[in-house]
Here is the input.
Amino acid sequence: MKPSIALSERTTVHRASERGHHDRETVHAIVDAAWLCHVAFTDRDAETGEPYPVSLPTACWRMGDQVFIHGSNGSRMMKRLASGAPVCLSVTLLDGMVLARSAFSHSMNYRSVVVFGQFEVVPETDKPAVLDAFMDHIAPGRRMEARPGDVHELKATTVLALSLAEASAKIRAWGPHDKEGDESLPVWAGVLPLREQRLAPVPDARTAEQGRPLPEYLSAWLQAQPAAPAMNKD
Here is the structure.
């Protein structure tokens, strides 16, 4: 049995509960496949103090049972999150458009994760290793070639960690479910699969002028195309 994440009221999937997943393996795999997440939190108007909702996209990566984000120390979002504001972080991977025989039965195939909690500030001593992991997430081997952050760059960057202890996944991975009576309609039905595709790296002008060859780790990155997600039978 896959190790489960403890359920909470916030992570219990009520609508279409058959799509819910609460094991670490599934949650980790979806977060690992993502480049971007959206972080939702409540901010306050600088003049009136009135609260208002915010949802912002940012890069994310995982180490162990935590998901990380980073940004400038001067970022309004980073300051707010570093203060311990409650957050909801979400990741969505779109896998296909589901075409049914009636307009209202159309759907999408997807893999998603929702995480609740509060970010913690990563200590200065841990920043280099955590940011190295970010480089590895972008392209394994990149951190061995690129110049690492210097003391000033590290000090100017806030790195935040969010526990995956209160998280759940939701997945749809099947064809159309037509309403009774619609199955006989003379309409094409099925799935239009979608997936991320890695394209050939494009060198900048200076790299091209130098005639610098493509590093082996980037050739490996290009060849490691994300596998098409398995689709369950209808």
The mean pLDDT is 94. Residues 129 and 143 are 10 Å apart (CA to CA).
